[in-house]
Amino acid sequence: MEMVIDFPGGTRVDAHFGPYIVETDQPPASGGEGSAPSPFAVFLAAIGTCAGFYVLRFCQQRGLPADDIRIVQRTHTDPATGLISDIDLEIQVPESFPAKYYDALVRSAEQCKVKRHLENPPQFHITTTAVEAVG
After folding, report:
1. Distant-in-sequence, close-in-space partners of 65: CB < 8 Å, separation ≥ 6
2. Three-class SS of residue 29?
3. Residues 24-60 as b or e (16 or more Cβ within 10 Å = b)
4. 52: three-class secondary structure by DSSP
5. Which one of 17, 27, 50, 91 is CB 3.0 to 4.6 Å from 114, fit for a cystine?
6. pTM for this predicted structure
7. 12: which DSSP letter?
8. Residues near 36 by Cβ (< 8 Å), separated by ≥ 6?
């Protein structure tokens, strides 16, 4: 997959891939306008939405209603490093949801590809290349 990242103005940084654009900005406290989520917020949202997809698919495959299910994601920061040390994903189901599926919901969320990549991170190769001006 290839993405093109560009800088449409201010502190905005957008990612273009296929027919999609993921817009990001910085909050006003960081010099941005807050017109879109920060790149880090998009990264965190990818974790929860990915886990959510696997939970949703589990329910769909078994004919279980998913309308009242939600995942609450909480992050915990290490004060010494300022980096996230723990991420909690709490799958909240209605009381009517069959308890026999609780553990299976957790196992399905654990299949999230974003989570699995964080557990087995890729190598990064960053280069600079001069190209002709675009436009």
Report:
1. 59
2. helix
3. bbbeeeeebeeebbbeeeeebebbbebbbbbbbebbe
4. helix
5. 50
6. 0.88
7. E
8. 12, 23, 24, 25
As a dihedral over the C-alpha atoms of residue 108, residue 110, residue 116, residue 120, rounded to 10 degrees, the angle is -140
For 52, 53, 66, 89, 117, the CA distances from 94, given in Å and listed in that order, are: 16, 18, 9, 16, 30
Here the tokens at position 40 are 């880090």
Q: CB-side exposure of 53: number of CA atoms within 13 Å?
A: 10
| Residue 117 amino acid letter | H
What gap in Å lies between CA 108 and CA 32, rounded to an integer? 37
85 CB burial (10 A radius; 0-12, 13-18, 19+): exposed
The predicted-structure confidence for 17-41, as pLDDT tens digits, reads as follows 999 999 999 999 999 999 999 999 9
Task: Specify the pLDDT at position 133.
Answer: 82
pLDDT less than 70: residues of the chain: 135
